[in-house]
Every structure is written in C-alpha cells, then in structure tokens.
C-alpha cells in the first residue's frame, strides 16, 4: 500500500535553547586559544571562560556584545580564531543534525507503517469476534440421536478411506527415499506404482462405488489440490528409482536375489523386455569391471608400484611376496566379477537347469500363492507385505480391497517376459570374450611388476586353483579363461628368462673384458691366474671361533664360505676365472632353479611346459652361441702372439675349457640337448685352437731362449763331463721352462686333461728341439740330448703316435755315425742306461711333460709297510749307489752364504739368464 507522508515533530529536533548553549560552549572553548603578540613578541594572556562569560549576555547569545569593546580588548587574530572555531563547530553540529534527522525519519516511516498494519489487523479480529458471538447466539440446539444412521456410517468409511489414500500419497516420498537408501529398489518401484493407482483413485470414480467421493459432497480435485501437487512430486521418483537401480548393478558383491529384484524393477518401471533388461545388466557389469580395473591402476600409481623407474634396486623378499599376493588377489577379484556375472545371469534368465528366477517372480505376481515354484522369500512381494513394512501401517487398514490387493500387470507367457536360451548364450559368450580381453590386458600390466619365474608361476597356479573351484563358470568358459591366463603367463615367462639371459650375456662380456685387461696388465688381481701353482698352495682365511659364541648362524655361514673356498681352490678356479664364470653361471643357475618350479599334473599344463621348455632350449642355444662368439672374437682380436698377448689367450683357453666340461652350471641343466653338445664341442675346439697356438709359441720361445742363453759349445761340455753322460743344461732348462709354462694353464685333477695338454706340449717341444739339435749335430752332447728325448718318447709309449716321429731315430743314427767317424769312445756313446737313470732322477721335475699315471697304493704295498716312493716315481727308481749328478750347471759354492740363491752368468757376457739356480 502507499506510504503515508509524515512530518517531523518538533520534539524530535533539538531546541533552539540547546543550540544556543552548545554554541556558547564552543565560543568559550574557542576563546581559550592563545595568539602570539606580533607587536612586542610577548604572548597575550589566555582568554579565560570566566571573562568570556562576563562579556556574553545572560542567555549566552553573542548578539548583545559590543564589537568595539571586543576589538579593544582582543586582537584581530584572536577574534578571527574565535570566529573560525565557532564556524567549525556550527558546521559539525549541522552535519550531525542532518544525519540524525535522516535516520529518525526512516525509523518513523517504518513505525508508522507497522502501526497502520496493526490497527487493521486488530480491527479484523474484533469483527471476527463479533461474528462468532452472533453465530453462537443464533444457533439452535439439535437433539443428538443415540444411534448413527447408515448414511453417516458410509460417509465415515468414505472419509476414512479418503484419509488412507491421502496418507499413503502424502507419505510416499518419505517412504521412497528410505527404500532407496536401503537399496530396496523393488519395494520402491512397487510403492511408486501403488501411489500412482492411489492418485488415479482419488481423481476418478470407480464403477463399484467404493470411492464415490462426490456423493458425500467431496470433490477431491477442488477441495484437495494438494493431491495433484503431491503426485507431481512422487512422479519424479520414477527416474530416480530406475537410475539408482541401474547403477546398483555395478556393485561387485551383488547377490542373485538382489540382482533379480533390480532387473525386475527395471522391467516394471520401464516396461522393457527381459532381453533388453539382460543387455542393461551386462553393460553395467562391463562398467563395473572397468571401474575395478581403473581403481586398481590408480592405486598402483598412488602407491608408486608401477614400473616407471626401470630396473631399480631389488625389493626385499617380504615386499616381493606381498606384491605377488596382491597380484593374486587382484586377478581373483576380477575373475570373481566375471564369474559372478555369468552365474547370476544364468540363474536369473536361463531355463537349462530348471525354471529361472525371473520366471518364478513373474508367476508369483501373476498367480500369487498358487504358483508352483515360488521365488525366494525376499522376492515374494505383495501390496499387503509392502504396506505392513511401512511405518504407521495401521492408517492403511481403511484402504479398499482394490488398493490392498493391487499387483502390477505381468504376463509370464509373453515373449517379452522371457529370454531364449540361444539369445542368452550368445550374449553371455560375447560379453565373456570382451571381459577376457580386459582381464588379459590388465594381467599383462600386473605381471610386468613380477621379475622371477616363480612369482609368475605362483600367480598362474593360484588363478588355476580358483577357476577349478568356481561353480559359476562352465567347462568351456574355464578353459577359455585358463587359455588367456596361460598365454599371458607364457609370454611373461619368456620375457623374464630372455631378460635374464641377456643380463648374463652382458655381464659375461663386461667381466671378460675386465679380467682380460687385468691379466694383460699383470695387475694384483691376476696374481692367482698367472701363478696357478702358487694359488693352489694358498691357504684360505680360516673362520674365527669367537663368531660361534656370538651367533651360531654367523659361524655356520663362515664355515660354508671356507668350505666353498677350499672346493674352488681344489677345482683350480682362480679368482678371475671364477668371476667370469660366475657372471654367466650365476644368472643361468638362478634361472634353472626357477625353471624347476614349473610343474603340473594336468595335460594342459604339461603341454604348456613342453612348449616352454622347447622355447627355452632355443633361447639357451642362442645364449650358448653368443658366449662362444664372445670368446671366439676375443681370440681373433689377438693376431700377433707376444709375451704380453699370450697371457689373455691362456686365460680365454681356461674359460673355454671350464665351459666344455659337463660339471659346468651353464650347461649341466640339459646335458643331452643338442645345443649343449654343440656348445661344448665349440668350446673344446676353441680351447684346442688357443692351446695349439700357445704350445707352438711357448715351445718356440723356450727352445730359442734356452739354447741362446746357455753355453753354445757342446764339445767343451763333453770334455768336462766325459764320464757322466747326461742331457745338456740347455735341454733341461728348456724342459723345466716348458713344465713351468704348462702350470700356467692351470692344474686340474682330470687325468685325461693333463695327458692331453702334456702330450700336445711335448709334441710341439720335440719338434722345435729336434730342429735346434739338427743344427748342432756332430758332438756328443747333441747325441746325449737325442737319447734323452728318445727316453721321453718311450715313456709316452706307442699310443701317442704323433710323439714318436721316425726322424728321431734317424737323427740318432746319423749322429752316432758322425761320432763313430770321429772315433769317440764307445763308453760315451753306449749310455742308454745312464740316460734312463738320469730320467728317473728328474721325472718328478718333468712330471708336467710326462703322461700321468694312476697308481694304486693299496694294491702294491704289502700290509704293514708304507712305501711312498712308488707313488711319486711312476717311471722307475734311480740307482741309489750312483754318484749324485746335478740337474743344472752349478757354480763352485763360496765359503760364505753357501745357500744363497744367485744368478748364474753364462759364457755369453752380453746376456744374463732369467733363471736362478740353487748353489750346492
């Protein structure tokens, strides 16, 4: 309404007297300001308020003041200061008054409006009281009958029925929310349909007369407009029920009864055929599977379990076990989703094993208790059951029979209310194949985090065990799932052992290059590899006893380490040799241990393992070929043999020899395999090639240096030792040097290996020595050397045909003819016995060049006696009574330092021998 104008009353404004008083106060305050006197430089006395009061009139107004008097008493500057102060105070009071007037004016307007409204309300109340008084005074008393009429009873029942309808419709939203929160979607759908029936009953008339509200003067649509508004609210729940029911199909642990109730809800509310309902169900289960896989992937990224860091440090054993267990659980979780989807779909829709659950629900709704195969208890829903489950169910007792006996219309015999078995099988098969593709993709990512064959096989075994115990998948589906899991595991297993083999190959190549450099540079690391004889007699560190008192496990570990060091030392594996072999054997040995865990009893697993082993043999053959190529390339790189380059070749030959024996871990797993046999043959061939080059180079160097560094004239030696036939010092020096060189090849307990090396070395040495002796033929010492060589040849026997060259006998005969022509004493020429005895005395020193013999001490020594010499002297015992003959040329011992080791200076003053001799 229009606002009534109002006028500010005089009481709301300040009075003129108060303004005058305020102004007088301001003037008095302003006059207290002091002003400097510019005439004499002295300050004027302060204008006090008492003096100002005397000047002002009694009412405080400055209008009666005489200006001349003020100007005579005060200076102009003081007057101006007072004037300025009064003006400022007036302006401030004016602004304050303006603000105060504005606020109070607004309050006055609001107050006036409220007063007018209150007045009108009071007037209406008074009028209402007056009407009530008049109505009461004019009312007549009607006699109350003791018994109501039949019409009134019907009207009461109609009102009660109407109240029941309204109660159900008004409470429907609250009940629907509660049912949706408890995920009882079938109850919510039934209540929604019942509310729709109630709404129609309220707005329409039935022919049976149960709900003829107009007979009693009640028009629901006009008198209760709330009914339509309430139905507009309830009608919105249809989409919510459908949406929430559809989303609930994605839950992982959804039971069969809950799934059937949800699918029947969609069938009721959307009037969908069951085939389309099945499609919706499978689509939601596909999304459920995708959601679970996405959540697992996000958890892996959040926890830092993904393989983005490449080959990082190995995790602990406990963390690896936890990772394997987590992988098993994830795989079983997604397999459970897949199996549960198929199993529930069959129990709900399939008729293969009896009447499906959906059919049972439809028949129960259509036939009621007369149904032959009723559904489970929680699916036996009726309107009475629904109303009794609602709060304040007593209000619904007045509902008519048409409402309480309501049931949705369904036709169990309709084609839309059933799913053909062929359609069900085809849709489930298509969905299952798509789900297996998702499972395969996820499993491939999960297995990338597993680094060993045992871990992968554990996951595969757990998956197979779970599939075998699953009752929701048929045999064909289990076979398909196992096939997918086997394919993924097989590819990952191949990738794991390929990575292991590649790592072993790289480690072998790097370690070989490092060790070859150490041997070539003759560093401290290569001492045991260049001095194998000294390495054999080195004592490993003995475990300390105090460790057993502190921790028995430490003592046991140290004892095992000591035992391993002894075994390695006895096997002849030096530190660098062991390092190179460990680089390849360590990875291969670990791989073979893991391959041993691949086992299974069923035919499918055996077939898979056969294929894996076949593939592994091919990959192992490629690995063997790579190792052989690395060693062959290292040998080919050494084209010119020198004293520095020969040591790496010897080291490579020892590696090839170790790889060729059956006990090597790199080839012991499948010794009957053709690739292993070929690899061993290649290693033997490579070892023999290097050995031939080494033998030729060593024999040539030894023979050349030995005859050059010793006395060149053999005639003088014959004169000096005419009565003692023996080989020359040059020959013995060469033989001893050759024996020392053979020891650099390593010492082995294999008799056949020693025999093969000794035979080859002696053959090369014999060839080079005969060439050198032919150039010196014609003297007695050469003849003796030839006889000594023939004694060595006879020791080898007829088996070594390459060691018994026909030219040796011809050279001896030719030399004898020359000596006979020179009329040399026959006692110096017929010395076979002396030469043989000399060989028996030096056989221990020449053992590396002689054929090894197997001597049985128990068979040759009588009981009660101990005979040690035959165990060492395999080629005869020397005559004890014979005078001692030194093996090497010896100097006359000095009077002092008789046991001092000195270097012997030979006749050639330009050379110093590199070998030392013991002075006797």
Automatic annotation (TrEMBL):
<dbReference type="GO" id="GO:0017119">
    <property type="term" value="C:Golgi transport complex"/>
</dbReference>
<keyword id="KW-0472">Membrane</keyword>
<comment type="similarity">
    <text>Belongs to the COG1 family.</text>
</comment>
<feature type="compositionally biased region" description="Low complexity">
    <location>
        <begin position="1"/>
        <end position="28"/>
    </location>
</feature>
<feature type="compositionally biased region" description="Polar residues">
    <location>
        <begin position="29"/>
        <end position="38"/>
    </location>
</feature>
<keyword id="KW-0653">Protein transport</keyword>
<feature type="region of interest" description="Disordered">
    <location>
        <begin position="299"/>
        <end position="320"/>
    </location>
</feature>
<dbReference type="InterPro" id="IPR033370">
    <property type="entry name" value="COG1"/>
</dbReference>
<feature type="region of interest" description="Disordered">
    <location>
        <begin position="1"/>
        <end position="47"/>
    </location>
</feature>
<dbReference type="GO" id="GO:0015031">
    <property type="term" value="P:protein transport"/>
</dbReference>
<dbReference type="Pfam" id="PF08700">
    <property type="entry name" value="VPS51_Exo84_N"/>
</dbReference>
<feature type="compositionally biased region" description="Polar residues">
    <location>
        <begin position="299"/>
        <end position="309"/>
    </location>
</feature>
<dbReference type="GO" id="GO:0006891">
    <property type="term" value="P:intra-Golgi vesicle-mediated transport"/>
</dbReference>
<keyword id="KW-0813">Transport</keyword>
<protein>
    <recommendedName>
        <fullName>Conserved oligomeric Golgi complex subunit 1</fullName>
    </recommendedName>
</protein>
<keyword id="KW-0333">Golgi apparatus</keyword>
<dbReference type="GO" id="GO:0000139">
    <property type="term" value="C:Golgi membrane"/>
</dbReference>
């Amino acid at each position: 309404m229009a606002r009534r104008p109002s006028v500010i009353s005089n009481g709301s404004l300040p009075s003129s007297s108060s303004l005058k008083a305020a102004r007088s106060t301001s003037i008095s305050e302003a006059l207290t300001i002091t002003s400097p006197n510019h005439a004499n430089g002295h300050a004027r006395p302060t204008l006090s308020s008492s003096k100002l009061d005397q000047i002002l009139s009694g009412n405080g107004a400055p209008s009666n003041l005489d200006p001349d008097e003020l100007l005579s008493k005060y200076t102009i500057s003081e007057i101006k200061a007072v004037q300025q102060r009064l003006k400022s105070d007036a302006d401030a009071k004016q602004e304050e008054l303006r603000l105060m007037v504005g606020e109070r004016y607004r309050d006055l307007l609001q107050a006036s409006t409220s007063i007018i409204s209150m007045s009108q309300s009071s007037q209406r109340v008074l009028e209402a009281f007056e009407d009530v008084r008049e109505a009461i005074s004019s009312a007549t008393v009607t006699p109350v009958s003791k018994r109501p009429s039949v019409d009134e009873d019907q009207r009461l029942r109609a009102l009660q029925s109407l109240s029941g309808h309204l109660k159900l419709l008004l409470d429907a939203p609250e009940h629907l929310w509660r049912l949706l929160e408890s995920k009882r979607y079938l109850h919510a759908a039934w209540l929604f349909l019942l509310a729709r029936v109630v709404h129609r009953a309220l707005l329409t008339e039935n022919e049976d007369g149960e709900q003829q509200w107009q007979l009693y003067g009640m028009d629901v649509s006009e008198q209760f407009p709330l009914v339509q508004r309430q139905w507009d609210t309830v009608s919105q729940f249809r989409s919510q029920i459908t949406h929430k029911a559809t989303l609930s199909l994605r839950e992982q642990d959804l039971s069969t009864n809950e799934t059937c109730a949800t699918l029947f809800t969609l069938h009721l509310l959307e009037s969908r055929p069951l085939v389309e309902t099945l499609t919706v169900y499978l689509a939601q289960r596909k999304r459920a599977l995708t959601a679970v896989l996405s959540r697992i992937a996000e958890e892996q990224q959040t926890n830092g379990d993904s393989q983005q860091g490449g080959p990082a440090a190995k995790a602990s054993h406990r963390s690896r076990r936890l990772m394997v267990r987590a992988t098993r659980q994830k795989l079983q979780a997604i397999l459970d989703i897949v199996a549960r989807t198929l199993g529930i779909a069959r129990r709900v829709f399939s008729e293969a094993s009896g009447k499906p659950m959906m059919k049972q629900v439809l028949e129960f709704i259509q036939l009621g208790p007369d149904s032959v195969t009723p559904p489970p208890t929680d699916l036996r829903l009726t309107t009475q059951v629904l109303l009794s489950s609602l709060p304040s169910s007593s209000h619904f007792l007045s509902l008519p029979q048409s409402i309480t006996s309501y049931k949705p219309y369904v036709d169990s015999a309709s084609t839309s209310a059933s799913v053909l078995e062929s359609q069900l099988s085809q849709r489930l098969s298509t969905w299952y194949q798509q789900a297996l593709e998702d499972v395969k993709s996820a499993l491939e990512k999960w297995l990338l985090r597993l680094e060993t064959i045992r871990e992968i096989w554990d996951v595969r075994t757990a998956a197979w065990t779970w599939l075998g115990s699953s009752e929701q998948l048929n045999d064909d589906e289990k076979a398909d799932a196992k096939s997918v899991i086997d394919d993924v595991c097989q590819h990952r297993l191949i990738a794991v052992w390929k990575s292991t083999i590649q790592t072993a190959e790289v480690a072998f190549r790097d370690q070989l290059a490092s060790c070859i450099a150490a041997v070539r540079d003759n560093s401290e690391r290569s001492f045991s590899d260049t001095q194998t004889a000294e390495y054999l007699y080195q004592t490993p560190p003995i475990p300390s006893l105090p460790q057993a008192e502190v921790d028995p496990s430490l003592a046991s570990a140290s004892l095992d380490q000591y035992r391993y060091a002894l075994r390695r030392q006895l096997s002849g594996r030096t530190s660098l040799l062991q390092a190179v072999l460990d680089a390849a054997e360590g990875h291969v040995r670990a791989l073979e241990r893991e391959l041993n865990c691949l086992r299974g009893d069923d035919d499918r697993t055996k077939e898979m393992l056969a294929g894996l082993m076949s593939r592994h043999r091919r990959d192992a053959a490629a690995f063997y070929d790579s190792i052989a190529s690395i060693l062959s390339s290292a040998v080919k790189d050494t084209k010119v043999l020198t004293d520095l380059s020969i040591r790496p070749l010897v080291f490579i030959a020892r590696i090839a020899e170790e790889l060729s024996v059956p006990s090597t871990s790199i080839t012991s797993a499948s010794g009957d395999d053709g690739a292993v046999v070929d690899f061993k043959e290649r290693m033997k061939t490579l070892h023999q090639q290097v050995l031939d080059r080494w033998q030729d180079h060593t024999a040539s160097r030894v023979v050349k240096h030995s005859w050059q560094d010793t006395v060149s004239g053999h005639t003088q030696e014959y004169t000096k030792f005419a009565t003692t036939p023996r080989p020359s010092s040059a020959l013995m020096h060469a033989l001893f040097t050759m024996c020392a060189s053979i020891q650099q090849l390593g010492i082995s307990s294999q008799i056949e290996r020693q025999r093969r090396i000794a035979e080859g070395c002696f053959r090369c040495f014999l060839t080079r020595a005969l060439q050198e002796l032919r150039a010196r033929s014609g003297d007695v010492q050469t003849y003796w050397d030839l006889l000594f060589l023939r004694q060595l040849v006879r020791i080898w026997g007829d088996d070594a045909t390459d060691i018994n060259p026909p030219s040796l006998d011809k050279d001896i005969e030719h030399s004898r003819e020359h000596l006979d022509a020179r009329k040399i004493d026959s006692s110096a020429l017929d010395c076979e016995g002396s030469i043989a005895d000399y060989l028996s005395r030096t056989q221990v020193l020449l053992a590396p060049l002689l054929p090894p013999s197997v001597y049985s001490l128990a068979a040759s020594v009588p009981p009660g006696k101990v005979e040690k010499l035959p165990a060492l002297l395999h080629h005869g015992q020397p005559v004890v009574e014979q005078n001692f003959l030194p093996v090497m040329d010896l100097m006359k011992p000095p009077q002092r330092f008789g046991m001092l080791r000195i270097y012997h200076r030979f006749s050639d003053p330009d050379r110093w021998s590199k070998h030392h001799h013991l002075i006797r």
